[in-house]
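Reviewer 2 asked us to include a model.

Predict the structure of this chain.
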Amino acid sequence: MIKFRKQKSKKHKGLEKNTLPTGRQVLNNKIMATKNKKMKMMTLDQLKDRDIGEIGTPERDKYEFDLRMELLGEMIKSVRKERNLTQEQLGELIGVQKSQISKLERSTKNVTIETILKVFKALKANVKFSVEMNESEFKVA
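Predicted model (structure tokens):
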């Protein structure tokens, strides 16, 4: 809620007008409100559990996947720049268009592992994948 303060107008002596509170007043009001409430400390994992969902829920799995893809895109971009390559040059090295490299760097999710491996091979970077098996039963048909 925005509270107005009365202020005398300099142009019209004696007249009052409604004005918005200053940024400092808004900040001070928020600080005072925060001080009046007891703040609960939470870890990052607790915040993620509360706001995204607990580990194993579809929402949390999607979040973790999107985060990994974002990090992978940032790694590709970082290594490409370290090697002084443009997106177009990297694309030529692996046989794809510049737009595909751009999508990789922006964390597009519909990328094959084969393409990712080609990119890192062209960048002369080692890639290690780890696979974790859940304790659930695994059957081969």
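Residues 57-122 form a domain with the 434 Repressor (Amino-terminal Domain) fold (CATH 1.10.260.40). Helices lie at 23-36, 44-51, 58-82, 87-94, 98-105, 113-122. We have added this to the supplementary material.
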